[in-house]
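Students often ask what a 'structure token' actually looks like in practice. Rather than answer in the abstract, let us consider isopentenyl-diphosphate Delta-isomerase, a protein of 369 residues. Its sequence is given first.
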Amino acid sequence: MALIMAMRRLLHVVSPLSLSSCSCSSSSSCAAALAATRTPLHSKLCWQQPFLVAATKGQEVCASAGFFTESSSSSSPAVFGGCSGVLAAKDSRVSGASFNKGERRRRRRGAEKRGFGNRSSSSSSSSVMGLGVQQERAVAVEEGMDPVQKRLMFEDECILVDEKDNVVGHDSKYNCHLMEKIEGENLLHRAFSVFLFNSKNELLLQKRSGTKVTFPLVWTNTCCSHPLYRESELIQEGNLGVRNAAQRKLYDELGIVAEDAPVDEFTCLGRIHYKAASDGKWGEHELDYLLFLHRDVKVQPNPEEVADIQYVNREQLKEIIRKADAGEDGIKLSPWFRIVADNFLLDWWTRVDDGTLAEAADMATIHKL
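Now compare that with the structural description of the same chain:
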């Protein structure tokens, strides 16, 4: 009902860059009240009814409904619950009922045709490939998956790449993190890792939420996630798509607003290609962009994503690594963070201190580690 009401509210014509109110009925102070913003290529997250939506100039956004309308009469890429599609906007209006039915029909056909993503696979007792959307969700419920993580797993579409980082397709976050699919089909997806330093040259670490499907309750770098298969996060020039995704997830996970994390202030230092198992079922196989940001920011962690945060200097990080190696205090580190810490981080940290970080950038090389 809340979704239907949200769609109906979008039937009126709105000015191209005005703020739209969130239709979420869960909280009047919901973060999605600021979902529509003048900031290009920025998104907001409604923590009560969380749909990620990409907002660009000329678009009005309703985070609860999970889609946006165009201020022009042209068709444009749209996001519905994290899945890319094309929605023809006419006279700045959208028919909520027809959109809902059409989207449901499209997604049902897509599920029947390709499982969760654009890859087909034979079904087996240990895989949910080929199931319909409702069946997929039922599997997640049986697995005891957190509702927010379940939504992200089934509705986020990761960017599939080859080992040279060429885009070859897209697939659900669920499939991209199944070891069965990683090993069986060599699914490799694009990712990013943000390393945020404050004015004291301390690195912000986060402890991943216990509801995370992969690597729960491990310490890692500031923010780690994936650019999604949507127009704003596929932009290759200047690695803008990845930087847009990093800005989006800094807000989603840590409440860091776009003004505190401008996309043009991210320094892209390099790329790594790694594979790591989380448990018997889940794992990572990523081509990971390493992004640095040197700013003082206000942090408001989202408990659905982050269990704890801590700023550390170099000596404190070395002690955390020592404890993780010794198994002390239950400290565990994410595999991608450990790879970066062992191979690059301390040298880059020195460059942060002396202001020569940009000289270390090497985006031509993909380090397979």
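One point worth highlighting: The longest strand covers residues 283-294. Ask yourself how you might have guessed this from the sequence alone, and why that guess would often be unreliable.
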